[in-house]
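Show me any protein, fold above all:
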Amino acid sequence: MSSDRSFSTFFHVNNDQPKILILEVLVKKCTLFLLVTNLLITGAMETHEAVDFRTEFLRALESCPKEHIDNLKDMLKEENIHLHTEAGEQGKLPLLILSLKEKKSEERRPAVVFMHGTSANKEWLRPWLEAYASRGYVAIGLDSRYHGERADSKTAYQDALISSWKNGDTMPFIFDTVWDLIKLAEYLTHQRKDIDPQRIGITGISLGGMHAWFAAAVDTRYSVAVPLIGVQGFKWAVDNDAWQARVNSIKPLFEEARIDMGKSEIDKEVVEKVWDRIAPGLASQFDAPNSLPVIAPRPLYLLNGAEDPRCPLGGLVVPAKRAKTAYKKAMSPGNFKFVAEDGVGHQVTSFMIKESSDWFDKFLKPGNMTSKL
C-alpha cells in the first residue's frame, strides 16, 4: 500500500453502532481499512532450525481433517491466477486456489483464505488447502507482500521493512497485505460464481494470523476468522518489557533503527518508534484491545501457545475480556473463543489445526449456521 493513498473509515459493531475510528494513515484514490505477527523463521535462523521448523509445520498441516477420496489430487481443480490490487510490482497478488472439480452443480461453496507466515509462501500451505478442498471448500492461498512470487531476493521482506522505516512510504508489516485481502474479498464476492459470498472465512499462521486478524477487523466480508499464533498486545509488550521475542524475529529492522537513533542497544523507545513508523496505530488505536471487539458478532476463534514469547499471554487478557464483552452485547457469546494451548510456544500444532477446522465447519457449512453471523 503506497503512501500516495489517503483513507479514513469507521468500524461498526453490534447493530451498526460506530465503535472506533480505525484508520487514518495515507493512501490515495482508494478507501481502506487496516491492521498484525511473525513466524519462527528469519534470515538469521540457522539452516537446520529452519528445516526442523518446516518439518513440524508440515506435520501439523498434514494432520488437518480431510475426506477420504481416492486419487484426491486428480479430483482437485487447481487455479494459479494473479489479481492486481494497486499499481506497482507489489500490487500483483499471486493466488493458489484449490477446489473439487465440479459435478455440474451450480451450488455455491464456502471458501477459506489461508495466510502463511514470515519467510514462507503459499506453496507451504498446499496440504492445508488440499484438506479443506476435499471437504467441499474453495481453498485460497496467497503470497503476502515480499514473499513467494513477490520476493526478488531472500532478504526482500527484511529489506522492505528497513525501507519502510527509513522512507515511510510503504507499510509492508501487516497493513499492505491487509489491503490485498480487502481487494481479494472483492474478487471472491463479486467475480467467483462458485463461492457463497456470505460464507468466506480467513485463517493464518503467525504473521498470517495477524493478517487474518486485521482483515476480519476491517472487512465484514470475512464472516469467520481463526488467527493462529498471531494475535498479541503490542502496547502491552512494550509496557511490560516483553517485546524482545517479537523484535528478534525481524531484528535487522530494529538494528537499523537503533543505529539511526544513536542508541547503543535496542530499547523500549526504539521499539515504539519502529511500530509507529512502519505500522501507524499498531501499538495504540489499532491494537488488540480495540480491534478484536469490532469483529463481533462474526465468529472469531483465537488459538495461541500458552508459552509463546512472541504473543505473550499477559498481553491478551484485556483484549480477550473486551472481545468477550462485545460478543455478549451482540447476543452471540458462543461466537467467540480463545484457547492458549498449554506447554506450547510459538508453533502451530495439530490441535490448533483440528480446532480451526471444526470452527469453520460449524459456521460455514450448510446446516451448521445456527449462530448470528
About this structure: The domain at 37-242+278-364 is CATH 3.40.50.1820 (Rossmann fold). Residues 1-47 have pLDDT under 50 and may be disordered. Residues 5 and 27 are 2 Å apart (CA to CA).
